[in-house]
Amino acid sequence: MRFLDTFALWLGRITAWFFGAIILVMVFEVVARYGFGAPTAWAHEISVLLAGAAFIFGGAFCMAEGTHMRISFLVEKHPRLERLSHWLSLVAGAIYLSGLAYASWRMAERAIWRFALDGSWIPERTGSTFNSPLPSYLKAMLFLGALLFLLVLLRRVLPGKAS
């Protein structure tokens, strides 16, 4: 099971670089648009895809690293509540992430497995000039991110891995 934590940490570090890529894409767009009068059709959608991926996989990264946000006001005042707080947060997180994984799977399934009457594959698209299948990819990534986050969270239930 340590593989999950290692994978979540690796994926989080990789996707963190996406924010740097967004900066490069936006600089390119600004120079192309205002310097050469030739705006791109793809810069906005690529930026949304990169930011979406980084945020989607960031939750599992923070949970695996043990840096996920905690509100510890009550626990600091009443140390005996720490164990209860820990288990309540695990249960609430598991319920939420299970629902998110299920709902995002249903959305991804409908967005990806779409076919025209002639049998050709037509995944959900943005409808913009670039018209990429970005919504399909983001919905699939949301499912994978929620599932990874849920598995890393459930890893905390195992003996010797409380955080």
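(the above was protein one; protein two follows)
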Amino acid sequence: MTESAAHAGVATVAAGRSLDLLPLPDLDAGLLTAEQVRGGSCVWCGTRLTGETAIDFGARSGTLVGVVAPWYPRGCRPCVRKAAVTAHNEHPSTCEQCVDDPTLCDTRRALRRLALEVRR
């Protein structure tokens, strides 16, 4: 797979609902830098991002210092993968479908697919 094809795969995931399944750091906790809030750095590790290395979560609304404000979270591939794997592993504890039959759970499948797509 070419590098541009790999990035196109991430763009496909970003357009879907899979990224919405990942918990993002709390904006109001005051732990994010201005670069992380504006999308210039990964929201988890603070690594500087470029258009090619960033996975964009889209514009969000959150509370920052008591004021509702827009923010633009983005993540690096390793952190997005780690968040997807963690969410995938923790999901069954809160999902009735996973208790009954995890192979039928759309959320669990989407999280696994996301983790696989961003591993490169």
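Reviewer note on protein two: The radius of gyration is 15 Å.
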